[in-house]
Design brief:
Helix content: 40-55%
Radius of gyration: 17 Å
Oligomer: single chain
Strand content: 5-15%
Number of strands: 7
Order of helices and strands: EEHEHEHEHHHHHEHEHH
Number of helices: 11
Length: about 260
C-alpha cells in the first residue's frame, strides 16, 4: 500500500506521522513553519485521510510497517521522524526497529498502566461516539467557545482559545476515518510499547509531553524514558494532548532543534 502524503518546503527531509483523527491535516497548525527549514513529508496512515484501510489486521505493528514501507519506497532511509499520540508511538517503534534517524515523539501512546489504559478506553470511546452522533453539527459547535470547551476538554488545556480551523480536521476525522475504531482496538487491546536499550536507536530521541495531558497522562512520561533511556524529555507547560494546538511555536522549535 502506498500512503497518501503531501510534501512541503525544502531542506533536509522530515516525516510526520499523525495520531487518531485527520490524517496529515493534523499537522496543519505547524506544517508551514516546519516547511521553512525542512522538506516535510506528512502521511495519511491506512484508514485515515485519503489512504484506504489495511486489508488485514490493524495493529501498531502493521501501521508501523506501512510507514517503514513508505520510507523505503520514497528513498528516505535515515529520515528524521516526528509523531504525535498514536503517531508518536509509531515513530518510537520505528526507532526501536532501527528505522529512520532522529525521532521526536509528542505525547505518545503505549505507556499506560493497566488501570490507565482502562480509563483511556472508557473515556475516549464515548467521546468518539459523541462526536459521531453530533457529526452534522460539529463544525458549528466548534465555532463557539462553549462548544470547543465541551468537545475538546479531554484534548486541550485551553480548548476555548483554539481556533475552529485548528481543531476541526482532527475532530471530524475521529468521526469519519474508517480505521478509528480498529486503531482504538489496537491501542487498548494490543501489546504496550516495547523499549529500546541504550545505544540501539539510530538517532537522537526526544519525547515531548503536555503537563495537562488527559489522554496520555504525564506520569506515563517516566515509563517512556525508562523504556527509551537515550531519550531526552521535554515538558510543554499549560499544554494538553495536542502540542500543535496548545503550543504550536514551541512544538515547531522542539522538532526543528532535535532533528537533522
Amino acid at each position: 500500500m502506498t500512503l497518501n502524503h503531501i510534501r512541503r518546503g525544502r531542506g533536509r527531509p522530515l516525516l510526520l506521522v499523525h495520531g487518531l483523527g485527520a490524517g496529515w491535516r493534523s499537522w496543519a497548525p505547524i506544517i508551514e513553519q516546519l516547511g521553512e527549514r525542512r522538506e516535510v513529508f506528512a502521511v495519511d496512515l491506512p484508514g485515515f485521510g485519503d489512504t484506504p484501510p489495511l486489508t488485514g489486521e490493524v495493529s501498531i505493528a502493521s501501521l508501523t510497517e506501512s510507514v517503514a514501507d513508505f520510507i523505503r519506497e520514497q528513498g528516505l532511509d535515515g529520515v528524521a521522524t516526528a509523531g504525535q499520540s498514536m503517531g508518536g508511538r509509531i515513530v518510537l517503534e520505528l526507532a526501536r526497529r532501527g528505522v529512520g534517524g532522529d525521532t521526536v515523539a509528542l505525547d505518545p501512546g503505549g505507556f499506560w498502566s493497566d488501570r490507565e489504559l482502562a480509563v483511556f478506553g472508557a473515556t475516549l470511546r464515548p467521546s468518539i461516539a459523541l462526536v459521531r452522533a453530533l457529526r452534522g453539527t460539529v463544525p458549528s459547535l466548534l465555532g463557539t467557545r462553549a462548544g470547543r470547551t465541551v468537545l475538546l476538554a479531554q484534548l486541550s488545556a485551553r480548548p476555548w482559545a483554539i481556533a475552529r480551523e485548528t481543531c476541526l480536521p482532527d475532530v471530524v476525522g475521529l468521526a469519519d476515518a474508517p480505521s478509528t475504531g480498529a486503531a482504538m482496538d489496537a491501542l487498548t487491546r494490543g501489546p504496550k510499547q516495547q523499549g529500546a536499550p541504550s545505544g540501539t536507536v539510530p538517532g537522537r530521541v526526544t519525547i515531548g509531553w503536555g503537563r495537562r495531558d488527559l489522554v496520555t497522562l504525564p506520569k506515563q512520561a517516566v515509563r517512556a524514558t525508562e523504556l527509551f533511556p537515550d531519550a531526552v524529555l521535554h515538558w510543554f507547560e499549560r499544554c494538553g494532548h495536542f502540542p500543535q494546538w496548545d503550543a504550536p511555536d514551541e512544538a515547531t522549535r522542539l522538532i526543528l532543534e532535535n532533528t537533522d
